Amino acid sequence: MNLDASVDLAGIALQPGEPTLLGATWTGAGVNFAVQCDGARRVDLCLFDASGEREVARLGMPDLTHGIACGFLPAPIGAPGLIYGYRVDGPYDPTHGMRFNSNKLLIDPYARALSGRFEWNDAVFGFSHEEGGDHPDARDSAPHVYKSRVIDANFDWGDDHSPATPWRDSVVYELHVKGFTQLHMDVPENLRGKYLGLAHPVVINHLKRLGVTAVELLPVQSFISERETLRRDLSNYWGYNPIAYFAPAMEYAVSDAVNEFKRMVKALHAAGIEVILDVVFNHTAEGNQLGPTLSLKGLNNAGFYRLDPQQPRLYQDRTGCGNTLAIGHAPTLQLVIDCLRYWVEEMRVDGFRFDLAAVLGRDDGRFRTDASFFKAVAEESSLRYVKMIAEPWDVGPDGYQLGRFPPGWSEWNDLYRDTTRGFWRGNPGDLGRFAERFAGSSDLFRASGRRPSASVNYVSCHDGFTLYDIVAYEEKHNEANGEENRDGHNHNLSWNCGVEGPTDRSDINDLRQRQLRNLLGTLLLSQGVPMLQAGDEFGRTQRGNNNAYCQDNAISWVDWSSAKDYFELTDFVCALIALRRRSPGLRRETFLKGARQSDREHKDVSWRHPSGNELNAGDWHDPDARSVGVLIGHAFADMHGNANGHLLYLCNAGSESITFVLPRALRGVQWHVVFDTAHWHAHDAAQRQVPHDNYLLAAHSSALLADGYAPASLHMARDAHH
């Protein structure tokens, strides 16, 4: 309900509520309010008018026991649309980790929606700057902060259901909700950059044509921009600065973020595309002891954050963002699990990618696969079949944990990224590492009984160079970030092919196109789960910026006009994903072993020297080796489900062309070319036979061959664009 001058609030009081219904829950008869606030002396529910600007009532919560305050507000005042916040009174004693300050209006941690706006003002800080932070600040923060809003969760899902794509069949597509459609001229202007823009048929048709099975959305949990970033006339575009975990960001909504997010999910599901959220449960926007008091800090600072045990006024920072959620504490763990359950059950998302996920495994400071968070996830029935992806590191001690997450989890494999980039730029001694990553990274995942799908393979993502910039820049160019180009990675493993940045030289541009196809070909033929970054299929560039977190502008937005110039690259990606879908040998449930079956002529995989022989120990350790052939057996399945046929992937990262002696195809059947990255044009013929027993492979190129047992549907049509 929206409160205005006509509503009589005289004598209104809260009735006893239900403490287990955390958040603001519309029951049909009114709204139940419940909030965790261990250590508080008093909690007031503050009601605001329809504009959210004027506080019209302050109601004491009647129950405050066992660390939870609760109350019930009957209809008609307690109803969807009501705008509210909390004020919590208690000890202000930072030296003991307590930062209660009833002058600060707090966001409900379980708020399903927010209202209003946030602005940086000294009043949002809980401490008095003049007195060194030892005393509470007396100014009212309400005019400057978001308010919480009660929602009606009803939504017509119709026959919606999750596509439930098996991990082995998944192709993930990482995108930013705003940046993906902000410049799309075929999306109505009012929907560009919005949830409904991503749900528009022209956008979904592009995703379906590519063949991706899931979109992974950069953070959509409500967030704010850092004060220092705004002072540079920039913003936190990526959204890794959360302030309300249950509430979808209003920036991406036309009017109703919750309803429009659900409509987006429903539309993507109807197209067979899953929705994975990039979630940030490692820190919040409240920062360290010098940060604002917006929600958790004013409700139960010592329970929600990891404090320095020697100096509880200070925060342990395992994230580089000022604070770290105390995931091992019961109220925090419940908040996170309840939030995951909500996004699955109410918002119907299909999975999560956890930012700085190593933090979540640190109950007592050390990472453990049996940490309370992992146990709680495993025990939560609603999360049993949800995709869980870890960014397997943080900035704490022993922070790099790639390969160490529990069974059932998949992980972003940055070793795959670095090795693949390094191989194709011609780094010495990368042959063995390249083979291990291509084959699914068994060295990382096999010992714990996990599958190749535990490895989420990528060569580019939001954090770093785009795919095009990997082949066009050797140095980062982050000057627009206002940090004198000091931010961002320096170890990019990129190669500009001879010229830094844009060039009119046709030879350089041709080489870059070839390198793009090499990187994409390797990614989509490797064992594991491939992940593409939005726009990489048509050469999206960030002009050499490898840390565009603060660029809410054309630097980061996907430039759809370039799709017309790069349609052949898009065709290549479409064809490769289709090839992967039709080739079970590229989507194995078990790791390649290099083993020969008694009734098979070739092993499941063998690594070939250009001479035609299998690689020996000396070949593997040859620092000058830049070429390898990968013979993949049992690549296809016939109509009876029997494995058959072979693929031969030839790679030449060297600067000279090289001739490969081809292995004998089964029963003498001739090899056919599926693709050659040095000869990929829309007017090329479809598959062609290899007329000899050898194959000449150009410098900096790769080719895929198939034997005669490949199904006809394997042919990669060059005319898909037309």
Describe the model.
By secondary structure, the protein is α/β, with parallel strands linked by helices. 19% of the residues lie in helices and 19% in strands. Among the domains are: 1-159 and 291-320, Immunoglobulin-like; 585-714, Golgi alpha-mannosidase II (Immunoglobulin-like). It is built from 15 helices and 31 strands. The protein has an 8-stranded parallel beta barrel. It is elongated and about 95 Å long. The two termini are 53 Å apart. The model is unreliable at 717-722 (pLDDT under 50).
Topology:
Layout (H helix, E strand, L loop, with lengths): L22 E4 L3 E7 L5 E7 L6 E6 L2 E3 L2 E7 L8 E7 L2 E2 L4 E2 L13 E3 L31 E3 L22 E4 L1 H5 L13 H4 L2 H10 L3 E4 L3 E3 L3 H5 L10 E7 L8 H14 L3 E6 L16 H9 L25 H16 L5 E4 L17 H8 L7 E4 L18 E5 H11 L6 H8 L3 H4 L9 E3 L9 H4 L35 H20 L3 E5 L33 H15 L23 E4 L8 H4 L6 E6 L3 E2 L5 E2 L2 E6 L5 E4 L10 E5 L11 E2 L4 E4 L3 E6 L16
Parallel strand pairs: 12-13, 12-21, 13-16, 16-17, 17-18, 18-19, 19-20, 20-21
Antiparallel strand pairs: 1-2, 2-6, 3-4, 3-7, 5-6, 7-11, 8-9, 10-11, 14-15, 22-23, 23-26, 24-25, 26-31, 27-30, 28-29, 28-31
Helix pairs in contact: 9-10, 13-14
